[in-house]
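Exam revision sheet. Question 4 asks you to relate a sequence to its structure. Input first:
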Amino acid sequence: MPTLDPQSDYRPASGAHYLSEQQRARILTLSRSWIWRLELPTWLLIGVIYTGWFNTVIHWQQLGTVMGSVLLILLSAWYMSLQHELIHGHPTPWRGVNQLFGTLPLAVWYPYGLYRDSHIQHHRDDDLTHPEKDPESYYYSASQWNHFSSFFKYIVRINNTFLGRLVLGPALDIIGTIRSAGRAFYSGDRQTIIMWVIHLALLLCLFHWMASYGISPLYYLLVVSYPALSLTKVRSFFEHRAVKNSAARSTLNEAAWHWRLLFLNLNYHLVHHDLPSLPWYGLRQIYLENRIEYQHRSEQFIVRGYAQWLEDYAVTALEIQVHPFYASAENAVIERDQRGGIESGDRRSPSIENS
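Answer key, structure tokens:
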């Protein structure tokens, strides 16, 4: 847990937002418990995911193609949730040690370091959903949208349906990742190139090892890794919306237990953005203890489980195209100056930690 700063309006130096002094004291008390101090749930999670994934590959022939594929899809998607937890400073306070547990490319498509840097940028809540500053935004600026072809606009609309996001979303992410890698190599971005070289070298070793147990690289890419990435799109389908109040941009999804476990409670997304250093096993507890307050803070941006998204948006597109109030980076600065900061309740919503 971060070090508390008594001058921070219930926020530590990391930029977390507490609902009250009482909540801050409550979280500090929890962080002193031996389970939280030792991060036992996260260590257990690391053991289960790695043991499960490697044993599934080793026993591939005995498990059979169907059972083995299902297990690898679930474990790979779970691994991506674990990578997110590692980014936010768990289970150790040392970034390099945490990175060791997330660098192996079980999820294939991107280096851990690039994901880490991009996700940290996403946690600057004043820019959340900004089409040019939030790397995880699904919105576009007016100038971007006007330059798109009719065909790409059609693709965007399909991608904004729940079923379309599961089918097309991973492909669009992969294309974007490949283009980004190409720009890095072309421009000579040494740090990014090193990340990709290490990532690809590890991936080749992993593919060679899996092939010895009867899993071809192409099979793993198409039948395991792509569906695993698709599964993560269930969680992020409508995780953020573009509204003026930054606290109301992140959803609260009261999902069933199996989804909460797979996504490590990130369905309580506003709580995570308010308290990004809070470990995954604390998110639900803190949400339930302050449920009414968080629902009010989110301006009722609440979902009653992922089935609600399937029911409402299976083939109906979300209205996520041109951002409603950020036309460009320059306009965003002007907008923020005019607002004097985005207010949430009686306290200004903080920016999130950059580590």
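Marking note for examiners. The longest strand covers residues 252-253.
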